[in-house]
Amino acid sequence: MKVIPKVFIVCGVYNNLSYSKRLMSCIAVQKYPNIKTIIIDDGSDDGTPEYLSDNYPDTVILKGNGNLWWTGSLYWGVNEVSKIAKMHDFILTLNNDCTFGRDYIQILVKTALRNDRTIVGSLVISELNKLEIIDAGVKIDWAKGKLIAQGPQLMTQLTKNKTNNDDIDTLSTKGTLYPVEVFGEIGNFDKFHLPHYTSDYEFACRAKKSGYKLLIDYTAKIYNDQKHTGLGLKVADKMSIIELYNLLFNRKSRINISDKYWFIKLCCPLKYQITNYLILIFKTIVLFTHLFPLSVIYTLRKIRRA
Fold first, then answer.
1. Can you tell me the distance from the alpha carbon of 213 to that of 184, in angstroms, rounded to the nearest whole number?
2. Once rounded to an integer, what is the mean pLDDT over residues 250-255?
3. For a tag site, which of 5, 45, 169, 183 has the least CB within 10 Å?
4. What are 169-214's pLDDT values in tens digits?
């Protein structure tokens, strides 16, 4: 009898009920027959847990108190899955601001099984501009301190003769399928050092270092609403001193200095660490030097108008 692996979907949410409604609608119509959804609700006060309980009673809802952040949510979900999953099962991490087609999970599982249970990431496409590819994999040039986007940048650049890419160094959690045994071997997401951003990249780097192959499947398409992304996706000149501080140090910022430091500490080869720390310091000084005078002027103008 053929065993159909169970796919445990793990997704953290905080408010934004409209996103969760769309996500659950996508999950509900999947062709893949063996799915269990685990939603970690980190203190939503907009009716999210009540809606999920009423409309999707088979969904497991873990309720946090607002202090889990993204990595803590995934960490809790993975721990719960590890108590009940079998060795042939998978964990699929999703963001609730993503949508996908009916055959999405089926494609991911087929690709993972066809490639000896590799870790499979999705082709992330902009929901606002469906021709724009946000993420098709990343290579890391530690010698130069660079993350280099791989693959096509536009949907029109996809070709039939290349449906995936395994020449990558890391993956996000926006639609990534992990064999459950990966977590048993290398541990969980690092909620202690990387509580919100960059924990996905660190985990994928750790998995690759332990011998697991990473692969992006261009046919596993997921659409992401970037409006829901945290601070730092675009850096504006007009920001107050407080906004500048948050850009550099807030957990919600994609360019949080602490996250960058820990990513280097945990993932960078030892011989390149000093170089990458110096690059981080240099980039921070340049950004601060450029933005701080503008932030002072903008703050003073706001005070005068008040």
1. 16
2. 80
3. 45
4. 999 999 999 999 999 999 999 999 999 989 999 999 999 999 999 9
Alpha helices in 29-103 (DSSP H): 48-55, 69-84
pTM (two decimals): 0.92
Q: Which of 226, 215, 225 is nearest to 107 (CA)?
A: 215
CA distance 89 to 36: 11
The answer on 218 and 249 residing in a single domain is no
In the listed set 173, 190, 225, which residue is the last one of a domain according to the structure? 225
- Asked whether residue 32 falls in the same domain as residue 87, the answer is yes
Q: What angle do CA 29, 31, 35 make, to 5 degrees?
A: 80
Q: Give me the amino acid identity at 1.
A: M
Residues 190 and 294 in one domain: no
Quick one: angle between helices 257-267 and 241-249, nearest 10? Answer: 20
Where are the extended beta strands (E) located within the chain?
7-13, 35-41, 60-63, 90-93, 98-100, 119-126, 133-135, 138-141, 146-149, 164-165, 176-179, 214-224
* Tokens encoding 299: 């703050």
